[in-house]
Amino acid sequence: MHRDASEVGTGLDRADVADLLTLARLLSAPIMLWLVSNRSLDAAALVVVVAWWTDFLDGRLARRAHRETRLKDWDLRADAWLASAAGLGLGLAGYFSWWVAVPLAAVVLVMSVLVSNPAAVMVGVAAQYGMFITASYLWADLWWLVVLHVIVFLLAGWRRFWDVVWRAFWAGLAGLVTGRRRHRRLVLDDWAE
Questions:
Q1: What is the pLDDT of residue 189?
Q2: What is the extent of the structural domain holding 67?
Q3: Which of 49, 54, 128, 147 could potentially form a cystine with 83 if both were Cys, beta carbons 3.0 to 4.6 Å apart?
Q4: Tens digit of pLDDT for each residue in 58-115?
């Protein structure tokens, strides 16, 4: 969708703010890599929490804007890049074996750009965040912050998670198994983000 002439020059609308939040997540990936690889898990946990909130908010803002955002196709990539930065940092810092963490991060990064089925990307993102939460639990004082926010997000977006994300994820996995292709835009349109 495009803006009409009356909207031009009126400042930022909800879709523009959603784009800025997605961009902030994209730009936080190098910061995440630096923090985790330098064994600053406490600060990295805070970055993860802020990133998860921006992801939560950009979706809500985009839906309320009633128009497509410019960075719509980059939302899942931002999640993948941030999670991969955490996973790569965990391998480089020695929290996990580098020969597990580095290839996993590389595969997720490549899939986020090339694969049209986001279900595979979501599995890789979940695996890397699982590694990060495990490392936060074992070696950081703020592990509870990450776990608390997982619980808060499940409670805040419980209905949307089950009604949209869960179904899209399983439909995507079924597409991977059967070889039936589904265009990325269709799946992301289902999420309306």
A1: 40
A2: 14-191
A3: 128
A4: 777 777 766 776 767 788 888 899 999 999 999 999 999 888 888 889 888 888 888 7
Residue 187 is assigned to a structural domain of this protein: yes
Torsion of CA 92, 93, 98, 102, to 10 degrees: -40
Q: DSSP class of residue 8? A: T
| Residue 43 belongs to some domain of the structure | yes
Rounded CA-CA distance 159/90 in Å is: 32
Please give the C-alpha separations between residue 93 and each of 16, 84, 161, in angstroms, as whole numbers.
36, 14, 33
Model pLDDT, residue 137: 83
Looking at residues 172-179, what average pLDDT do you find? 68
Residue 130's nearest CA partner among 111, 156, 152, 104 is 104
Nearest alpha-carbon partner for 22 in 100, 98, 65, 76:
76
For residue 26, which of 80, 104, 92, 99 has the smallest C-alpha distance? 80
Residue 52 or 60, more confident: 52
- Tokens representing residue 141 in the block: 């004082």
> What is the token pair recorded at 79?
């999640």
Give this prediction's pTM. 0.74
Residue 57 CB coordination number (10 Å): 13
Element (H, E) at 17: helix 14-37
Residue 152 lies in a domain: yes
Q: Is residue 1 part of a domain?
A: no
